[in-house]
């Protein structure tokens, strides 16, 4: 056990290296991700022991390895293809409709590598099984460092405007019903965890088909700002930026989200700046 913990510390250091080649070598090391995901995290989740320190260490390593994954391992994502791109139905469209109403598309992607039954190497970092384990940990762990690492890994995987990020967001929210485990983190007393969760939600809000689910969550947070949030400028800034983006992208939906509580809360925030 001590040897395993010692090894995790070494891997954590190499996975967090600023040198992209070092990260890639660590991520591609044969069997490493399988050990991290299957041999450790999966087993302890099944045993309801998701707060073990070794789980935290494993997830932190995976968080580091997923950083700029698409840029550092582009060959992994050449097989993503768009199956269908079709406009959402909008009976009220006109030439004078908001831009978002005219250019709102629903995209379906095909990426066989994500569904591999026996992932290997780098494939573990974006495989459906890994997303499921993140979802399980977010729903079961009480350890804030583990929760933040899970959110951080998902944030890395959804960080760009690419097809991969869209697919990761859609898979986590639509296939795995991930929003219920993220929602409580948006009001966490830990400002760092709260900010990471909000940044993740912000990434996911770029996908037009997910905005209807994300919008109420962000609106609720800003309508019920806590004293802890007021102390954290970065969390407030992130939440307001996400809200602004959503309101500009979905003007009709934003009208329904505006409430006396939201206006009062935003006014109070402005007076505290």
From TrEMBL:
Alphabetized UniProt keyword annotations: Cell adhesion, Cell junction, Repeat, Signal
Gene Ontology CC entries for this record: adherens junction; cytoplasm; nucleus; plasma membrane
Signal peptide: 1-19
Gene3D superfamilies reported for this sequence: Leucine-rich Repeat Variant (1.25.10.10)
InterPro entries in the cross-refs: ARM-like (IPR011989), ARM-type_fold (IPR016024), Armadillo (IPR000225), Plakophilin/d_Catenin (IPR028435)
Example GO biological process: animal organ development
Similarity comment: family membership: Belongs to the beta-catenin family.
Name of the protein in question: Plakophilin 1
Species: Cyprinus carpio
